[in-house]
Write a sequence for this structure.
């Protein structure tokens, strides 16, 4: 399986899932059901987006995903919005 596994394609699928959650229509529910649906959508988006932001590699059959959860200004890699 390792030879056919495309890490970048998997990460892209998670990015697409995160976007799909953002576009998900709210079903005709109200009250407590609505609150639970919205909470679950937020959790789904967060989980998919985290994996979608990962840097992945497959070495010797071991998949490693690296996710930097620090704010952009704390990363020190020039990826913040200030251009530094």
């Amino acid at each position: 399986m390792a030879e056919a596994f495309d890490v970048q394609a998997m990460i892209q699928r998670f990015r697409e899932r995160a976007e799909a959650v953002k576009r998900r229509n709210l079903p005709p529910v109200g009250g407590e059901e609505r609150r639970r649906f919205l909470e679950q959508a937020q959790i789904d988006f967060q989980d998919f987006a985290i994996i979608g932001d990962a840097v992945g590699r497959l070495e010797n059959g071991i998949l490693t995903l690296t996710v930097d959860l620090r704010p952009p200004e704390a990363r020190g890699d020039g990826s913040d919005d200030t251009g530094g």
In short: The beta strands are 55-59, 62-66. The chain has three helices and two strands.
